[in-house]
Write a structure and sequence with these properties.
The protein is α/β, with parallel strands linked by helices. The chain folds into 2 domains: 56 residues; 161 residues, no CATH class. It is built from 5 helices and 6 strands; from the N terminus they run H-H-E-E-H-E-H-E-E-E-H. Helix 2 runs antiparallel to helix 5. The longest helix has 54 residues.
Length: 229
């Protein structure tokens, strides 16, 4: 009798231990599901935030794209003197007084077109080649001029071949301190190069323009009040 009672008690303990073990496994499974569910919810929220930030990007936040892998050939350099190259291309060089250097918010009216100096947005436009229609705001790229950059600008509607050739020009020096973009100030010429206080304007984009742009870049890169690597 005693032996039978002990056997029943042993089976009861085994059953309880088994049920407790199963309960612990189920509890761990529920906790894991909650953790995974929370992580997925956080990921979804993060995706929404990123999408909203991307949608809110404006002109001032324009970013350059990567230069294309296929380059379009441009004429080899023949003239290195800026004035001689500009004359051969039918371009004009001008030097202007400084219009200001303060950081401001909102739109600024500049006395030169395209601008060569003046008060500007606190965020400079990055170096690089910008897709047509993705030009930074002028207040941002004027700040870029203050950092010693040279900007190559072309008029809207310039043939795609010429735009690709400007990308080749950009790559000649690995894009060092240069930005290339479509003009957004209604400049009255097809091509312009600007640096701090300096301007090269070319009414028509012809093959000689490349020498003028090269000579302008060689003379005025890093010639500005602030040197930013």
């Amino acid at each position: 009798m005693s032996s039978r009672q002990e056997e029943k008690e042993a089976r009861r303990r085994e059953r309880l231990e088994r049920e407790q073990a199963e309960a612990r496994v189920a509890s761990r499974r529920r906790r894991l599901q909650l953790v995974l569910g929370g992580a997925l919810a956080l990921a979804a929220v993060a995706a929404v935030v990123v999408a909203l930030l991307a949608a809110s990007t404006g002109d001032g936040d324009a970013e350059p794209s990567q230069a294309g892998s296929e380059s379009v050939a441009i004429p080899a350099q023949r003239v290195t003197d800026l004035q001689a190259a500009a004359k051969a291309a039918g371009c004009r060089t001008r030097n202007f007084p400084v219009e200001g250097r303060d950081h401001v918010e909102g739109e600024v009216t500049y006395r030169t077109n395209p601008p060569t100096s003046g008060n500007h947005n606190i965020n400079p436009a990055p170096d690089g080649v910008y897709e047509p229609g993705n030009t930074p705001a002028k207040e941002n790229y004027v700040h870029t001029l203050e950092h010693g950059r040279v900007l190559f600008q072309y008029a809207p509607g310039l043939p795609a071949r010429r735009v690709s050739q400007l990308e080749t020009l950009f790559n000649e020096r690995d894009g060092y301190h240069v930005a290339v973009f479509e003009n957004n100030t209604k400049m009255p010429v097809e091509f312009a190069a600007t640096a701090w206080l300096q301007q090269l304007t070319c009414p028509k984009f012809n093959d000689r323009v490349f020498d003028a742009a090269r000579a302008f870049r060689a003379r005025y890169t890093d010639k500005a009040p602030e040197f930013i690597p």
